[in-house]
What does this fold into?
Amino acid sequence: MIKAKKSLGQNFLIDRDILEKITNIIPIKEKNILEIGPGTGNLTSYILMKKPKKIIIVEKDKDLAKKLEENFRDEVSLINNDILKVDETSLLKEKLTVFGNLPYNISTEILSKWIVNLNKTVWFDHLILMFQKEVADRITAKFNTSNYGRLSILVNWKLKVEKIFDVKPESFLPKPKIYSTLLLFSIKNKTFKIKDPKNLEKITRIFFNNRRKMLKKPFNQIFNGDKKIIDKLKIDLNLRPQNLDPETYYRLAGEYENLRS
It folds into this structure.
């Protein structure tokens, strides 16, 4: 029997009811599927029941990858690698529907990488991903709330996100100490044009570096107190970072790029 490895953040989803619900969120018959961290292949089996066109699975753990290859053979295309090292944009010419019970320790890093890469090409239609509940709360947070920050701003730039349901610890093996949350992401039709997403990451990092302080200090640090930008974006520098909506941060990133061009 294969044991979960704590170093890889492994918690295998074993609840059959939850597995069934996950594969019923959107129709996946004849769809191209990418599954991240299939583990013991529990979700993979349920996905296969829905008759997808193709399944690509990415599993970092060599022992698990070997077992998955034995269990599924020609039914899936297996990549034994770290998802952070995989160029997801080159996996298939057609768009993918992505499923993932993401390792808690790198879940935000994976999501951020995918969003940044959307500036190159839109390679997926939906993401159906499991996160630690605390992280999911940050992703779905609205401005003027305590959970709102860099992650929710970055996600909202390119994606629509919907909370599907929470998942209790007992649904996993080994049982984590916290609840998990399943989120559904889809592509936005219209987004604010930012040339380099790293500029948005920089803007939000500086502004949220001290979220309890007023906006005046980070604004002056980036824009040297430029009153034209203050007036143009109608920013009150006495507010705090969580009081600005995502659109304002996108426009700030745009102004930053204009200054540098």
